[in-house]
Amino acid sequence: MKKISVKLAMFFIAVIIFSSILSFLVSIFFTDDIRTEIRRDQETIAVSILELRQKTELSMDEILSFISSPMYEVRRLEDMEAQEMTPEEIERVQDNEMVFLSRGKFHATATIFMVDGEVVQIRLQPHNTVFRIAGSRVAFTLLSSVLIAALLVILLIKRVVRPVVKLSGATQEVAKGNFDVKLEYKSDDEIGQLTENFNRMTRELKNIEYLRKDFVTNVSHEFKTPIASIQGFARLLQQGMLSETERQEYTDIIVNETKRLSNLSANILKLSKLENQEFVEKQTAFSLDEQIRKSILLLEHLWTEKNIEFDIELEKVTYHGDEELLEQVWLNLLGNAIKFSHHDSKIFVSLEQNTSSIKVQITDYGIGISEDAISRIFEKFYQGDKTHLNEGNGLGLPLVKRILDLFDGKIRVESKPQQGSTFTVELPSGGQV
């Protein structure tokens, strides 16, 4: 299996080579600068020959022998017509003019002139053409650029791929169950975002693992306590040496504990179902204010026992949603308000609507909630008030929170110890009819 660094390096090098070949093919057709350079060089050589002939006693053979170079060939020309020269060009040479011949991009160039009645030709060596000179220069430049670019690509790709390699190793650690892995890579690019998402994923997995362990521990504890109580009192009943009053008391305890187990099981199942539910399935139009009144009446046996009065201010609101789920919210919040209120106290319930939301407030004037407990009241099985442990199981408010999440709603809590609590529920106006 090829590494991603090798694949990326090969890809970039292939792109560089392909683009260089295209550049080479394009650039060799633009040879005017080289042609001008050759013409200037040849004219310089011709002038040198004329000056040497005029100012020295060297023979033409001697001059031609040492003036030639690996780049240019200098020789006598016996037949100008064999050079495919036009009559006008031949006439110009005979008039002691220098004539530069160029017959296309892929042919050699030459300068022809007269020296003491002899025709002299200066041209590129037979192995040289304008095409070859231009091609060799461009090829050298492109080859150098390809080699340098390939080296830089290899070095840079190693740097780019390094965080990916670290990420691969980190995912293997997560697969083993190690959720304490954290990657450090600060960048705004895609790899930086991937690293940030990976760190977020490990944090969430770690939280989920903690919640799972905590959930199992709490469920085990919540089931263990009533089961142990039922088992203990059932054994006492088996002994038979009990008065009628004791027998009635023990059977009442067993019944209450079985109720507690039943409620606990039902709430766990409800919460489990809601946590795996992504949207509200059943949606109907119903009167929200009437639903709240109905919830209060359903709990009448609880608030009449404590002689609690209700102060109700409910606007008429027709809402579109899951009526059964939303009723669970009011029953849980009102039930808590009653449970934590003092005898002969009051509970205030209001419902109002505006263009953006529907707001429900439930205020009691009971024992209140401490500041530390407020941050945890929506955790599963958490019960801030230890004096009411036998009256609940710590799943009511988590159920409320999850239901409101499905409705895209919000819940806020304001409370002070011994002054009461206010729970504010906000539902989006999209569910309003």
UniProtKB/TrEMBL annotation:
GO cellular component: plasma membrane
InterPro entries, A to Z: HAMP_dom, HATPase_C_sf, HATPase_dom, His_kinase_dom, HisK_dim/P_dom, HisK_dim/P_sf, HssS/ArlS-like, Sig_transdc_His_kin-like_C
Annotated ranges, domain Histidine kinase: 218-431
Keyword Heme attributed: no
Keyword line: Kinase, Membrane, Phosphoprotein, Transferase, Transmembrane, Transmembrane helix, Two-component regulatory system, Virulence
Domain HAMP span(s) in chain numbering: 158-210
Membrane topology of this protein: Multi-pass membrane protein
Subcellular location: Membrane
Spans through the membrane: 6-30, 138-157
Swiss-Prot/TrEMBL catalytic activity: ATP + protein L-histidine = ADP + protein N-phospho-L-histidine
SMART domains found in the cross-reference section: HAMP (SM00304), HATPase_c (SM00387), HisKA (SM00388)
UniProt EC number: 2.7.13.3
Gene3D superfamilies the UniProt entry points to: 1.10.287.130, 6.10.340.10, Histidine kinase-like ATPase, C-terminal domain
GO MF: phosphorelay sensor kinase activity
Biological role: Member of the two-component regulatory system HssS/HssR involved in intracellular heme homeostasis and tempering of staphylococcal virulence. HssS functions as a heme sensor histidine kinase which is autophosphorylated at a histidine residue and transfers its phosphate group to an aspartate residue of HssR. HssR/HssS activates the expression of hrtAB, an efflux pump, in response to extracellular heme, hemin, hemoglobin or blood.
Name under which the protein is recorded: Heme sensor protein HssS
UniProt organism field: Dethiobacter alkaliphilus AHT 1
